[in-house]
Amino acid sequence: MKKIKFILVGGFLGAGKTTALCRLARYYIDEGLRVGLITNDQANNLVDTYLVKIEGFNVEEIPGGCFCCKFNDLVLAADKLITKVKPDVILAEPVGSCTDLVATVIKPLKFYHKDSYEISPYTVLLDPKRAKDMIISGALSGFSRNVAYIFMKQLEESDIVALNKIDTLKPAQAASMLNLLKKKFPKSKVIGISSRTGKGFDHWIKIVRTMKGCGRNILDVDYDIYASGEAELGWLNFIAELSAKAPFSTEKLLKALTLKIKSSLNDIPAEIAHLKLALSTGLGNSLIHLTRSSQGLEFFKRESGKSSSARLIVNARVHTDPKLLCALVTGALNELCKKEGVGLRIKSKQYFRPGRPVPVHRFV
Ligand SMILES: Nc1nc2c(ncn2[C@@H]2O[C@H](COP(=O)(O)OP(=O)(O)O)[C@@H](O)[C@H]2O)c(=O)[nH]1
Ligand SMILES: [Mg+2]
What is the pLDDT of residue 100? Predict the structure, then answer.
């Protein structure tokens, strides 16, 4: 039986994993291959899964814990894809606050499932703004030392560090950042890519195909620091049904909501790791991501028509208390809906600090 190529792409919250995987999926599909994706989060109702679905890809979701703690679910999700899609390639995105994935996911997959999967080298994506703050300047970028520890461990365990979003850098800036990263992570191959424009993808895919071995960098990870770092990030996921007698501008509402949340978090202050808002109506979808507190507002997808009903999914990962985060986000939504005369029903609300990671397997 031909082995399925299994590609895991990690990286901190907001580094561009989902965007990269969608582009990779399209690339392999254009080559005539069948592709399945696996998304993962600590909670349910993922904007990522929703996005991957509207892009038309086959996806399985693993909610309620990371791949390392839900290793058997990861294998089951892959089995489901095999039954449904018969994939040549499986693309998997771990939770952006997770590390130690080589020891807890890649090695166990390689050991226990070597007949089914050919595991590709492990790529970890890096956002240039976070790189500038947390690697070059040695600052904490609004996070604590524990979160910075996770961020660095993610990169250190990679086979490939891919500096993503190079479309946002001038060529000279990109070159100097890549040089610095090569010195900082000598055990990894360092490349530049743009998941938005596709720049560097051919090169990346070639390295993924030809690099010998995968998961070459097993780390010593201090699970107390790792657990503390994860627990410092407040998590909030919910769905909301919006309805009104007269059609309202969903785009305007989404924009106002994002600005209100951003401004309240800046007042605390609490650094946004990743805030994702997806609003769908019968007309189409609007999506906004913020991957830093200082980032300007930018629509990822935009539907400018008016509608009298809409469904909103909110996923927020912020360096603050989850209860406060929940009160602040739902409060902002309530206030805006009241002002616009829009009825609101919030469902499936989950807010928490991620629990201590307890991997099913750990290879040393
Ligand atoms: N400019 C630019 N933005 C990107 C790129 N890749 C991802 N993004 C944006 O970064 C944000 C987070 O991306 P996402 O894929 O959800 O990150 P994830 O949390 O790592 O999965 C989104 O607004 C994306 O549009 C890129 O190569 N260039
Ligand atoms: Mg994602």
Answer: 98
Question: Which ligand 1 atom is nearest residue 197's CA?
Answer: 27
298 has pLDDT over 90: no
Q: Which two tokens stand for residue 224?
A: 């107390």
CA-nearest residue, atom 6 of ligand 1: 16
Does one domain contain both 96 and 198? yes
Average pLDDT (29-42) is 96
Task: Determine the pLDDT at residue 364.
Answer: 87
- Is the CB of 110 inside a 6 Å radius of any atom of ligand 1? no
Query: 10 Å Cβ neighbour count for 252?
Result: 13
Q: Which two tokens stand for residue 327?
A: 């009160």
In a domain, 311, yes or no: yes
Pocket of ligand 1, candidates 18, 19, 91: which has the most ligand atoms within 8 Å of its Cβ, to mutate? 19
**Is residue 287 situated within a structural domain?**
yes
319-to-114, 170, 233 alpha-carbon distances in Å: 38, 30, 5
Beta strands in 184-233 (DSSP E): 189-192
pLDDT of 1: 76
Q: Which of 196, 230, 264 is the last residue of a domain?
A: 230
Question: Which of ligand 1's atoms lies nearest the C-alpha of 125?
Answer: 20
Residue 277 pLDDT: 97
pLDDT in tens, 301-322: 899 899 999 999 999 999 999 9
In a domain, 158, yes or no: yes
The whole domain housing 54 covers 4-230
Q: Is residue 358 part of a domain?
A: no
Domain termination site, one of 184, 202, 230: 230
CB 214 within 8 A of CB 109: no
